[in-house]
Amino acid sequence: xxxxRYALPEPELFQQLDxxxxxxxxxxxxxxxxxxxxxAVAVGGKHTVLLDLLHRCRNPLVIQLLVIAIVSYLMGDxxxxxxxxxxxxxxxxLSYFQESRSxxxxxxxxxxxxxxxxxxxxxxxxxxxxxxxxxxxIVILAAGSLIPADLxxxxxxxxxxxxxxxxxxxxxxxxxxxxxxxxxRAPFEYTNACFMGSNVLSGSARGVVVETGARTHFxxxxxxxxxxREATSxxxxxxxxxxxxxxxxxxxxxxxxxxxxxxxxxWAEALLFALSVAVGxxxxxxxMIITVCLSKGALMMSKKKVIVKHLHAIQNFGAMDVLCTDxxxxxxxxxxxxxRYVDVTNRSSEDVLRYAYMNSFYQTGLRNLLDRxxxxxxxxxxxxxxRKVDEIPFDFRRxxxxxxxxxxxxxxxxxxGAVEEVSSVCENYQVDEDINPLIKLIRDDLMDEYRHLSxxxxxxxxxxxxxxxxxxxxxxxxxxxxxxxxGYIAFFDPAxxxxxxxxxxxxxxxxxxxxxxxxxxxxxxxxxxxxAMTITKVVTGPQLATLDEESFGRTVEEANVLAxxxxxxxxxxxxxxxxxxxxxGFMGDGINDVLAMKAADVGISVDTAVDVAKExxxxxxxxxxxxxxxxxxxxxxxxxxxxxxxxxxxxxxxxGNMFSVVGGAYFLPFLPMAPIQVLVNNxxxxxSQVGIPLDHVDEEYLAKPRRWNIKSIRNFMFFVxxxxxxxxxxxxxxxxxxxxxxAFKDPSATDAAKTHWEQLFHxxxxxxxxxTQTLIVHIIRTQRIPFIQSCASRTxxxxxxxxxxxxxxxxYSPLAKTLGLVRLPAIYFVWIAGFLLVYSVMTxxxxxxxxxxxxxx
Length: 857
Hints:
Structural class: alpha/beta
Helix content: 40-55%
Largest sheet: 8 strands, mixed
Shape: elongated
Number of helices: 30
Strand content: 15-25%
Radius of gyration: 36 Å
Number of strands: 23
Strand order of the largest sheet: 8-23-22-21-9-18-20-19
């Protein structure tokens, strides 16, 4: 985008664009459109249903299960194929349907830009579709218009625009046709430039289009948004755990296949058993458990005015330890109010308010945001006592305007405008009823007071007046002289009442808040003071631009107020914080926030945001308040806590079981468990875990951000997993020597007897394995004493008790023969009850020791 086009003389500009003050001809416009393409901005496409499902099948766990299902089918094991295929189907489709439902909740939000704009074609004003606008078009702008492309202003009258969606600046910005522009200004600092995505608040203007579509500032941001998003904290955590389990599974399955093949001599049977072990080792329910946990979290959050677009963002929400947020509309109310009206000594003055009100009330034309803020003081009634006589309109050279009214038997000229310009035409100042000469010393003191107000973050205007005899009926700019300075009016975007409470709550939850804004540092400091936010360090965009990478990282870590940032700088701040080990959320609603939202672990927007911001967000708030975030953060931690429960339980249980499988396969004269029994055992265990998403999470776990810690999971698996092997081997020896299964080795035993002893052994370990790993869920799910200090949810209690009951019932059920199970002696359950008691106590103590030694995660 050639920035110097805003500083070029108009004839040279029109020559570059091959245009004129009468605009383009229809033929020329059509030719340019064919050459450069439509004035359209891409905001992201959608995958087809098939592509979306295929993308979800790229998960390594899903691929592994699909391979196992295919091999099982080729081996003729249809039962295994159906079981494993069903798990894949549920996991993939449940995730797809939930995210589709969430996405539909935001699809109907309105478009950012209008579909038509008024341009000059063939010398006439016509409405054309937005996408048909081309460089060189002359655009007609009025109050309420959206800027359809990047423009250079040719003429303007009382022209104010809002660039808050682009820059974060909540105050209206004055635009004019001034050609004397410094060539090296930042684009948004050109007073004769308007940009796609901003809108007209008041006045009228004509401008020539200099850039369209992807070449506009808006379009450049949208193009960057289309780039592939970096993996978030949640993505990296799931990926790390998945590959940890896959590597472990490959080693153990290969070892099992070789041991069974070499010791039993039946390689086909060894392959089927190894495949069953592979399923047993694979946390195949992880995608489904994650999706159900996240779906439940999304449902709960929707009740709290939070729409989740991307399910994975919920866990990132809970893990977030740094929240970066824009100032406007988040900490503030996103509307301008007249906050102070003071005399030149900075004391509140009703006279200043009344004169300012009369000026705004009687001026003609469209009123800007500042006028509307003044006129909000409806308690003032000026119509009964006043009559308008004349008006001296505003212009950008004088930067002031005046109205003349008949007031108290005099014609009073009331002037309002920029402090420097108004004070330059004042000869006196007034305090109460006293009027004194405005000598240089006093003028300097008054300007210091104005600068003090500006430093407090206020937008300041001056109010002055001059009285004339009633015989004078016409007035001009020349009459704006010899005025008496009455005082100042100061405007501000006030802080929300809830902001201080929200920041305190976030801090209590372990989340540091950083303000990233395009607004200036003075205004931002004032907002931070108003919301009782302690400022650790303030840094501006120009200051950051001079730093090397190391200094940049150190500075953004230390500072919690970063002002005058460009969109690229916001993005760099987010990436730097993530690179330094933080889980970062960014909350914004403007075009200038999009890059930062995309770079964050979790992008947060609101339903009133611009479309491009909503498109890049993971979470959309129906209420633009930090207070809403606290509930979402806690819900995210609950979700993550329950996901970690499943991972810890599954990883430690599977690790222990494989010790038992490998050992049993080596020294037993038969397989420790039949392949179908391994699959059914694994399936029933997975069923017992379906209550996890609805389980309670201890309060102390929710007190601080929680993140993936693969090292902690691996250590937990190594320390807790082998405990189950102790009781598996105890069961092996119980079945072999107490219940006589060792008789299988007796050379005189018949085939029927051998089958009986083998099935009895299989049944004994099948029941013990299922009972122990299901019961132990209640021990591992909490750091407290289970059943006494912390009890599982009713759903989880029901599923675990039901599965344990099913395990005890299956040997006596009609399914026993199909599964190769036989009846167990009653004394067996006495032994198992003892095993369960000792196992639970031992696991609790090891778990408690582990938390003290390595920390709870």
